[in-house]
Amino acid sequence: xxxxxxxxxxxxxxxxxxxxxxxxxxxxxxxxxxxxxxxxxxxxxxxxxxxxxxxxxxxxxxxxxxxxxxxxxxxxxxxxxxxxxxxxxxxxxxxxxxxxxxxxxxxxxxxxxxxxxxxxxxxxxxxxxxxxxxxxxxxxxxxxxxxxxxxxxxxxxxxxxxxxxxxx
Length: 168
What we know:
Elements: H1 3-6, E1 8-9, E2 14-15, H2 20-29, E3 34-38, E4 44-49, H3 50-60, E5 80-81, H4 86-96, E6 100-104, E7 110-115, H5 116-124, H6 136-146
Parallel strand pairs: 2-3, 5-6
Antiparallel strand pairs: 1-7, 3-4, 6-7
Helix pairs in contact: 4-6, 5-6
């Protein structure tokens, strides 16, 4: 099975110049936790999550309508093609500690999303077979990698590797 067979299609997008209020509205209206941010040509250049918006509201202390997506979106974006295997998607999720991957076409335009939820639902579906490129062990391994703390508690020694989100 490849990413294109499992992904959620019809992904919504926003632009760096959109307000965080607009991004939050898109998330709410489409019952999703993240949306790709695109450049004027429609190419995915960043991601914004509901958590990004919440933390921007907290740290910037302004109304969402007064803040731009550019002030909160993660500029580090990891994407996958629809022809890639689910193993590749899982490996990317593990390596970059992300729950959702935008699926892009040949020129980098978002055409869907594949998420940990998609993987788990597929693995739990009736008629699931282990040769579908998914296994309970693989999904648990991916989830465990994604759930590693991004920051160590105060006073803890630093981890050998940490994901750093690029800021504008």
